Structure formats: structure tokens, C-alpha cells
Amino acid sequence: MTKKIILSGSTVTGNLTLGNYIGAINNWTKLQEEYECLYMVADLHALTVRQEPKELQARILSFYAQYIACGLDPKKNTLFVQSHVPAHAELQWILTTLTPIGYLNRMTQFKEKSEKTNEILAGLYMYPVLMAADILLYQANLVPVGEDQRQHLELSRDIVTFFHNRYGDTFTMPTAYIPKMGAKIMSLQDPTKKMSKSDENDKSFISIIDPPKSIEKKIKSSVTDSETVVSYDPEKKAGLANLLTIYSVLTGKNIDSIVASYQGKMYGHVKVDLAEIVVETFKPVQEKYHDLMKNQDHLLKLMKEGADKANAKANQTLTNVYKKIGLVNL
Ligand code: ATP
Ligand code: LTN
Q1: Between helices 108-115 and 122-137, what is the axis angle to 10°?
Q2: Backbone angles phi, psi at 182, to 5 degrees
Q3: What's the rounded Cα separation, in Å, for the pair 63 and 41?
Q4: What is the mean pLDDT of each run of 10 residues along the chain (330 residues)?
Q5: 253 phi-psi bin (left φ>0, alpha ψ -120 to 50, beta other)
Q6: Closest Cα partner for 124 from 6, 13, 7, 8?
Q7: What does 35-47 look like in DSSP terms, one character per residue?
Q8: Measuring from each residue's beta carbon to the nearest atom of ligand 1, which residues come in under 6 Å?
Q9: Which of 34, 217, 242, 260 is 20 to 30 A away from residue 312, measured at CA?
Q10: Which atom of ligand 2 is found nearest the CA of 131?
Q11: For a pocket test of ligand 2, which of 5, 7, 11, 197 has the largest count of ligand atoms closer than 8 A to its C-beta?
Q12: Cα(266) to centroid of ligand 2, in Å?
């Protein structure tokens, strides 16, 4: 039986966070045995906000190493960088000609991000269409993402329908694959907002390559309410609930048993233990990351192999799309 196809990616901004790890990468590593997986470093998406060219270049390499350090095996998966596959930008253009702007106007992530800046770029607006191209090029069945991406996935599905209505069946209809627990890890400084790697307050997120001391500091200074009894109440005690969720996902223990083990203790005890759990989780990841970063030629070689595999697949779809819409393939 042919394996189902999985595609996902993360935008190259900042460094991967604990939120990305729990909501995305950690799940990706579990899927690599069962499915045909393609994981992408989304560098073209990063251009939707202003980037310093030298920093962006260094970050693309670092992200690629972070993927492998988190357990994604370049032999089992196709690990590639988005800009190494020109078909992404090419298919995106075709798809923009089928996407009503009313659909883009509804995207909540665009609204949120554009409220924070007075330079609203067309690329940020088109971002979900590029994401649809990423997915459709590989005929992906499943797209593992965090809750924040659900709406973008719905748009990809709408775009498939628009295309099929006009030109006939061409793409696989993708489905979002969203983990039940930990689909949304919240900011350590404002538990009403999701943890985001591009947050300007670096105390609000833990990056997977943060030194242990910094991880401890960030968790200890995370914002919680002024009560003391440890209980799980996402509405009234959002900060603590977020810490308990992280605790539960990283240890595999259920939240009730964690809460029970802290009866008679204070929030501070939860924080100290959680800091140790996070540090231990990232210890092997950090060791592997620093090793990989020592040999950049090797990383570039892996990137090239990933790009070759991805290009072969993507070009097949693009050629078919060109034929379907009436362009001339040479
Ligand atoms: P940015 O701050 O640049 O928007 P981000 O931290 O939101 O970045 P993305 O690159 O947008 O991260 O997302 C990569 C993957 O991680 C996506 O699947 C996304 O759903 C998931 N993800 C991002 N933030 C969280 C979070 N706080 N909790 C759970 N999953 C998350
Ligand atoms: N927009 C996504 C990153 C991303 C992605 C994709 C995820 C870009 N292309 C394709 C899944 C499939 C985000 O998480 N911000």
C-alpha cells in the first residue's frame, strides 16, 4: 500500500520555540515512521516581515539543523528549504488568480499581524496562498500544524475546490492534522496570547536552543495569578494551566495526576520542576544541534539532497497544472 503523504513547515523567524516543538516538530518526528513526510524550512514565508539578509541566511541553516536536532531524520524524510524549489512561487501565482480577496480578508492571522505594523505588505496578505501552494505541490494528504493554522488549511481546501471546479481534479484534498493536547502553547508573559518565536519580548518564549539558565529564568518569571493552590483552570488561572499543559505533554503524565502531586505545595514548586523537565528535554537536542552547526558543508549537502527530492515531486505537479490550465510546457 502506498503511504499517505505529509507536508509541514515552519517559518524562518527567530528560533524554534517550545510551542513549535510541542505543537509541531515533536509530532512530525512521530509521523516519519508511518508516512511519506516532507518537512520544509519556510524561508519565503519569512520574507513577509522585514529581514536582515545576513541574519536570514544564517537562520535558514540554523533552522535546518534545528529540525534534524529535534529528531527529523534526513534519510527517512524529505527535509528541504522552500526557496530551493522554484515551483512554490510559480504555483502560488496560479493560485492567486483563483482566490477571491474576500477569503483573504477573513484570515485572522493577517489581521493580527497587520495590526502590529504600519507597513502592511502584499506578501503578508498572500501568505496563505503560498502555504496552499506548498501543500498542493506535494499532493499532501495530511498537514500537521498547531491550532493557529487551522484557518489557513481551510483556505487551502477552498482553493482546491475552486481549481477543481474550473479545471478538473488535479490535487489531493489536504486535511489538517492537529494534536489534541498542546495544540496551543501560550506566551509565558501573557497567557492569553500564543507563544510566538517572533514576539519582541524574549521572556515570553523558550527557544529550543536557549541555555539551561535562561530556560530556568524564563519559567520562574512566567506570569501566573496571585493565588497559591495548584489547580487546572484555563480560564481563571491561564498562566498556571499553560505550565501544567507543557508539563503534561513533556512527561506524558495526565494533568489530574500532576495537580494531585502538588497539593499543599505552591506554584513555585511547579515552576522549579517544570524548568528541569524542559532543560532535560532539550539537552540532547542542543547537543545534536551544536554538533551539526560545526560542519556546515555537511548541512549544505543534506539540503541539496532534500531539494533534489522535493523538486522532482513538485515539478511533476506543476507540469500537470500548466497543462490543465492551458499553458505550453516545453
Ligand atoms: P511567528 O512568530 O513567526 O508567527 P510561530 O512561533 O507562530 O512563528 P510558525 O512558524 O508560524 O511559528 O509555526 C510553525 C508550526 O508551529 C505551526 O505548525 C504552528 O501551528 C506551530 N505553532 C506555532 N506556535 C505554536 C504554539 N504556541 N503552540 C503550539 N503550536 C505552535
Ligand atoms: N504558515 C505556517 C508555516 C508553513 C506551513 C506551510 C505549514 C508554511 N507553509 C505548509 C504547513 C504547511 C506557519 O505555521 N506559520
Answers
A1: 150
A2: 75, 20
A3: 7
A4: 93 93 91 94 95 96 97 96 98 98 96 88 96 98 91 98 98 92 87 92 96 97 92 95 96 96 95 98 98 97 98 98 96
A5: beta
A6: 13
A7: SEEEEEEEHHHHT
A8: 10-11, 13, 17, 19-20, 22-24, 145-146, 148-149, 183-185, 194-198
A9: 34
A10: 9
A11: 11
A12: 39
CA dihedral sign of residues 188, 217, 23, 127: positive
Q: What is residue 193's predicted lDDT score, i.e. its pLDDT? A: 93
Give 194's strand partners.
Answer: 186
> Do the beta carbons of residue 159 and residue 98 sit within 8 Å?
yes
Place of cell 497559591: 228
The model's pTM: 0.93
CA 168–ligand 1 middle distance (angstroms): 33
User: CA 294, 300, 301: angle at the middle one, nearest 5?
Assistant: 110
Which domains can be identified in the chain, with CATH numbers?
A: 5-178+296-325 (3.40.50.620), 202-290 (1.10.240.10)
User: 197, 218, 237, 271: which one is catalytic?
Assistant: 197
pLDDT for residue 182: 65
In three-state secondary structure terms, 145 is coil
The active-site residue out of 4, 113, 217, 288 is: 113
For ligand 2, residues with CB inside 6 Å are 7-11, 42, 45, 131, 134-135, 143, 145, 149
Q: Output the pLDDT for position 315.
A: 98
113 noted as active-site residue: yes
Q: Grid coordinates standing for 122?
A: 502584499
Q: Which three cell numbers stand for residue 55?
A: 541574519
Percent composition of the chain: helix, strand, coil (DSSP 3-state, to 5) = 55, 10, 35
Nearest CA to ligand 1 atom 7: 196
